[in-house]
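task queued by scheduler; priority normal; single chain, no ligands, no partner chains; default sampling; output format set to structure tokens
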Amino acid sequence: MEPLSGSFGVLTPTDQWKVHAFYRPSERLTFEEFNANLREIKRRRPGLVHVAGKLSRQILTEAARLAAVRLEPMPSVVARGSKRRVQHVREVTVTGIVRPTPDLHKLAKAYLEIAKGMLEKEERDKQDTDDNSTTDPSDPTAS
């Protein structure tokens, strides 16, 4: 259900867990494995059959809505004095997506990006400190 993962955010985390329990979308199940899981769910949690179907319709409705929306930045020109500046208006929506098992590749990538950002900030701070220490504030020619 990876193509619909962005649509999962329309559900609460509790409801997402219900969909995972019923459909197991993060696993590559064979038809036989899916049917065995379905029989087990019907036996142990019969109410989940109806709930999962209802929740999957919500996901599909959201996926269709997202597919219909054209997501492109809307530039607008703002004139200030003799300069013109283009602003891109963006709207960002953040939703939580539950996963039964962590995506280690994405997790590693996130940690690398955080480390890279920390190193860049450290380098900028060091450069700012070096720039400030080489300039004598009492020297009128320095600016």
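post-processing summary
- The mean pLDDT is 80.
- The two ends are 59 Å apart (CA to CA).
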